[in-house]
Amino acid sequence: MKLKKVHHIAIICSNYSKSKQFYTEILGLEIIREVYREERQSYKLDLALNGEYIIELFSFPNPPARPSRPEAQGLRHLAFEVENIEEAVDSLKLKAVITEPIRTDQYTGKRFTFFTDPDDLPLELYEV
To answer: 3-class DSSP state for residue 19?
Structure first.
């Protein structure tokens, strides 16, 4: 088997309209397709970053909560690459998104910070 790249990340949200607004208006992801699946009572929103398909955002009736903190087992976070971390943090703050203090990775020397989506999913900005 030869993997080529990550195709997409699937996220199940608790409040579809709030998460849709966060990922499109705050993070600026582009909507590729939005469908409502009547038989599942579920929305599926396909989102792109710079024209590349990256996230499937789902809604389901009454999804169970998944712990994010403290460091629960499973997927830890989703990281987005940025060129200037201060500009990215300032942009989030203007939209009332709280970020952690900017830190430096002791092994790579690169700077990063964390924030959360409406369901407390940990998201990271990583400066390259």
So the answer is: helix
Q: Tell if the pTM clears 0.70, that is, is over it.
A: yes
Q: According to the model, what pLDDT value does residue 68 have?
A: 76
**Considering the domain boundaries, does residue 18 fall inside one?**
yes
Residues 81-121 pLDDT 10s: 999 999 999 999 999 999 999 999 999 999 999 999 999 99
| 3-state SS string for 31-99 | EEEEEEEHHHCEEEEEEEECCEEEEEEEECCCCCCCCCCCCCCCCCCEEEEECCHHHHHHHHHHCCCCC
Residues belonging to the chain: 128
Question: Which domain range does residue 88 map to?
Answer: 75-128
Contact of 43 with 34, CB cutoff 8 Å: yes
> In terms of Cα–Cα distance, which of 84, 83, 117 is closest to 99?
117
Give me the number of domains the chain comprises. Answer: 2
Predicted local distance difference test score (pLDDT) of residue 75? 77
Residue 67 lies in a domain: no
